[in-house]
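Deviations from the work plan: none for this task. Representative record:
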Amino acid sequence: SQELEQSPQSLIVQEGKNLTINCTSSKTLYGLYWYKQKYGEGLIFLMMLQKGGEEKSHEKITAKLDEKKQQSSLHITASQPSHAGIYLCGADIQGAQKLVFGQGTRLTINP
Amino acid sequence: DSGVTQTPKHLITATGQRVTLRCSPRSGDLSVYWYQQSLDQGLQFLIQYYNGEERAKGNILERFSAQQFPDLHSELNLSSLELGDSALYFCASSGQGAGLDEQFFGPGTRLTVL
């Protein structure tokens, strides 16, 4: 089983709508990273969260790490075609000093 | 452009063969990470080097090995290749610290084993 579970696995939304992607672990997360990937290309860093309760925003994307540091959410407001891609969460689980990634969420934006 | 370069971009080879993938980190970055991404396994951490020394190991097969050279570039060697080794191999680099930090990913090498 995956150490990091992402949900949903795929998401199709109408342009302009809001959406949320979740990343959950049964263990404490020491550093949670969100990346975006275009199919077959490299990963682009979006945000890093380290403290419980931390929230960061960049343009229309907001990421939060819950107080217990076991779940993170990525929220996109007023989605645009440029938001389409695969979103991956990565985390250092229990301070192992190596990143474990979720299986990814494939986001499609319909015009 | 992340500043991380990987060569070659594509590689097609046969089972049983050996290949070398090359990565040049961003200028000044001391850590290099190797990842394998396949459809069934997702993105898997293989190994990390920091300033020439192995720092952390993930799900790396014994048939695979890596090293980081004095100029900080890194190579991933894959030998006795099997069909299941077909995947995208990513290299990432991060800054001065040995601990986990924001990682900058290269464009990847797509390996196809026939």
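The two ends of chain A are 35 Å apart (CA to CA).
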